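Reopening: Helix-turn-helix transcriptional regulator still failing for me.
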Amino acid sequence: MKRKSFREAECPVARTLDAIGDWWSLLIVRDAFDGIRRFGAFQQNLGIAKGMLSTRLRDLVEAGVLDLAPASDGSAYQEYVLTEKGRGLFLVIVSLRQWGEDNLYRDGEKRSVLVDEATRLPVSRLTLHAFDGRRLEWADTRLI
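Support: Ran it again with your exact input. Result attached.
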């Protein structure tokens, strides 16, 4: 079955999923936020087939989420670095993480914790706010 493209869809969610919507791509972006930059490190950390990884990395570069840069150690290798567009996915990754923590772990089950680098305290929960600062829930919004 051929994958349908949502590149020109009216919906921004559909366009986003067209660019980064499969789990491998989001896991690659997650790993890039965790400091992974080299093909071999992505492959080892994710356990993904080399061909699949190559395709996903190429697609993320084409989408402007990652860029290829000379290796930071001066070797002949290239590294994948998050672009500004890619760094803009940080809240998406944190939101997915928090949803997973809330819904996919048993009480007391061990997991990693995202902390503030300066204080070493856990980051606060993401919330949506109106222009006037009120906290918004799903029922408080509407698409126009």
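The first helix runs from residue 12 to 20. If you still see a failure, please send the error message rather than a screenshot.
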